[in-house]
C-alpha cells in the first residue's frame, strides 16, 4: 500500500481546481495546500459568498508563492444555496482557460451546520428544511453535474470530484438532524456518481471532528444536546 501511494504523482497536474467554501476554515487551508501541488499555468477557483475573504485569500496565496508557480487564482462570489449561484460558478468554470489542461478537480467543501440548537421534532416547516437541503444537497449535486458536463470525458483529461464529508454521514448525532441528513445524502450521491461515471475519480473525505473552524465554534456553543456540546468543548 505504501509503495502504491509513493508512486502517485506528487502534483495535481495542469489543473482547473475549484474549491467551494474557500473563504475560511478548512476550504481556505485546502486552497493553500493545493496551490503548491498545481502545475504552472493552472487555475485555482475559489468560491464562497464573502468577496473580501476570497480576495484576501487570493492575495495571501500570491504573496506566499510570489507568482513563482504561475497560478491563476480567481474568486467567484456565489451563494450555492441558490440556482443562480450554482449557474454562476459553472459559467465561471467554463470561461477559464487552462491551456493543455490535464486535470479537472472539484472540491465540494462548502456546507453549513444548520440550526443544531433544536431537535428533529421542531423542524415542522418544510421551507426551512428545504433551504438547508438546498445548499448542502441540491447545490452540491447540481454544481458537480454542471461542472462535469462542462468538461466532458476526453482523452488526456483526468476528472476528480471530492465530497467533504463527516462522521455524521454514518453516525446519528442528537440535535444535528439537518447536518446528518445532508452528509449522509451527499455520501450516497457521490457513491452513485462513482457507479455511473467510472472515469471520474470520486472521493468522499471526512476530515475529522476537531477542525478548529467557525463551524466547530457553532457546534460547541449551540448544540442542543448537552452531552454533545460538552464532548465538543472537551475535544477543543
Ligand atoms: P466553516 O468554517 O463554517 O466554512 C464553511 C465555508 O462554506 C465557508 O467558506 C463559507 O463561506 C462557505 N459557505 C457556507 N454557506 C455557503 C453558501 N450558501 N454558498 C457558498 N458558500 C457557502 O466550515 P468548516 O469547518 O471549514 O467546514 C468545511 C467542510 O468540512 C464542511 O463540508 C464541513 O461539513 C466539513 N467538516 C467540518 C468539520 C469541523 O470540525 N469543522 C468536521 C468534519 C467535516 P461564506 O460564508 O463566505 O459563503
Helix-strand pattern, N to C? HEHEHEHEHEHEHH
Give the number of DSSP strands: 6
Give the DSSP E fraction (strand runs of 2 or more residues).
15-25%
Query: What level of helicity do the residues show?
Result: 40-55%
Structural class: alpha/beta
- How would you characterize the largest beta sheet? 6 strands, parallel
- The overall pLDDT, averaged over residues, is 94
Q: Low-confidence spans: pLDDT under 50, at least 5 residues?
A: 1-5
- What Rg is obtained from the alpha carbons, in whole angstroms? 18 Å
Looking across the biggest beta sheet, what order are the strands in?
A: 3-2-1-4-5-6
- Helix count equals 8
Ligands in the model, by name, code or SMILES, are: NADP nicotinamide-adenine-dinucleotide phosphate
Overall geometric form: globular
End-to-end Cα distance, whole Å, is: 33 Å
Task: Write up this protein.
- The protein has a six-stranded parallel sheet, sandwiched between helices.
- The chain is of the alpha/beta class and about 240 residues long.
- The model is unreliable at about 1-5 (pLDDT under 50).
- α7 packs across α8.
- The radius of gyration is 18 Å and the shape is globular.
- It contains eight helices and six strands.
- The protein has helices at about 1-5, 25-35, 50-65, 85-95, 125-150, 175-195, 215-220, 225-235; strands at about 15-20, 45-50, 70-75, 105-110, 160-165, 200-205.
- α3 (about 50-65) links the parallel β2 and β3.
- The site of NADP nicotinamide-adenine-dinucleotide phosphate has 31 residues, from α2 and α7.
- NADP nicotinamide-adenine-dinucleotide phosphate binds near residues 23, 25 and 209.
Amino acid at each position: 500500500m505504501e509503495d502504491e501511494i509513493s508512486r502517485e504523482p506528487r502534483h495535481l497536474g495542469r489543473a482547473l481546481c475549484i474549491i467551494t467554501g474557500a473563504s475560511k476554515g478548512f476550504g481556505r487551508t485546502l486552497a493553500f495546500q493545493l496551490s503548491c501541488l498545481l502545475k504552472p499555468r493552472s487555475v485555482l477557483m475559489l468560491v464562497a459568498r464573502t468577496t473580501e475573504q476570497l480576495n484576501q485569500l487570493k492575495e495571501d496565496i500570491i504573496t506566499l508563492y510570489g507568482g513563482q508557480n504561475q497560478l491563476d487564482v480567481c474568486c467567484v462570489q456565489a451563494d450555492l444555496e441558490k440556482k443562480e449561484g450554482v449557474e454562476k460558478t459553472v459559467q465561471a468554470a467554463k470561461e477559464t482557460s487552462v491551456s493543455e489542461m490535464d486535470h479537472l478537480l472539484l472540491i465540494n467543501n462548502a456546507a453549513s451546520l444548520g440550526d443544531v440548537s433544536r431537535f428533529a421534532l421542531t423542524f415542522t416547516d418544510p421551507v426551512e428544511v428545504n433551504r438547508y437541503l438546498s445548499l448542502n444537497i441540491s447545490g452540491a449535486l447540481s454544481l458537480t453535474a454542471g461542472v462535469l458536463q462542462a468538461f466532458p470525458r476526453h482523452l488526456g483529461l483526468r476528472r476528480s470530484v471530492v465530497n467533504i464529508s463527516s462522521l455524521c454521514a454514518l453516525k446519528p448525532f442528537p440535535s444535528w438532524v439537518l447536518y446528518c441528513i445532508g452528509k449522509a445524502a451527499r455520501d450516497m450521491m457521490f457513491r452513485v456518481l462513482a457507479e455511473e461515471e467510472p472515469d471520474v475519480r470520486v472521493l468522499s473525505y471526512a476530515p475529522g471532528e476537531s477542525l478548529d473552524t467557525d463551524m466547530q465554534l457553532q457546534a460547541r456553543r449551540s448544540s442542543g444536546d448537552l452531552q454533545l456540546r460538552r464532548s465538543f468543548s472537551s475535544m477543543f
